[in-house]
Amino acid sequence: MAKSNNSIFEKFSDWATKFTGSSYAFIGATLIVIVWAVTGPVFDYSETWQLVINTGTTIITFLMVFLIQKAQNKDSKAIQIKLNELLAANEKASNRIVDIEDLTEKELDQLHCYYEKLADFAEEDTDIHSSHSIDAAKRNQDYKHDQFKKRHDEWLQKRRSNELT
C-alpha cells in the first residue's frame, strides 16, 4: 500500500519507534548514564547533578509512553485487520468473531470459556497429527473450493434467469 499520505507526525513517530527500539538508542542511553555517573564527582554529587538525570529520564519516559501507545495501537489495528481477513476467508470460521475487540469484557470471557472447552476436546486427541495433517488440510481446501464453485454456479444461474425475465 502507498505511504504517501503519511503526516509529518506519522513519519516522525514511525522513525522514533524504530530508532528507540534499536541497539543504537540503547547504547546511546547507556552512554548518557555512564557520562552522568562519571561526572558525579565533578559536581560533588549535588542535588542539581541528580536532578539532571531525574528530570531527563522523567521527560523521556513521559514522551515514550505516548509513542509506545501509538505504535501499539497501530500494530494492534493491523493485527486485528489481518485476523479479520483470515476469519472472513475461512469458510469454517465463525464470522461472529470478526471485530470481537468491540465486545465487553464479560462477553469476551464467555467466548474465552467456549474456546477453552474446545481446547479441552482437542487435548483428548493423543495424536497431534489427527486433526492437523496435510491430508486434512488438503481435504479442507478441496471442500472450500467445491463449496465456492457450487455457490458461484448457483449465483450464475440466478443471474442468468433474472436476465431472461
Automatic annotation (TrEMBL):
Record keywords, A-Z: Coiled coil, Membrane, Transmembrane, Transmembrane helix
GO annotation (BP), single: transmembrane transport
Coiled coil: 76-103
InterPro entries linked: Iron_permease_Fet4
Domain of life of the organism encoding this protein: Bacteria
One Pfam entry name: Iron_permease
Transmembrane region(s): 21-43, 49-68
Protein name: Low affinity Fe/Cu permease
Organism annotation: Chryseobacterium limigenitum
Taxonomic placement: Bacteria, Pseudomonadati, Bacteroidota, Flavobacteriia, Flavobacteriales
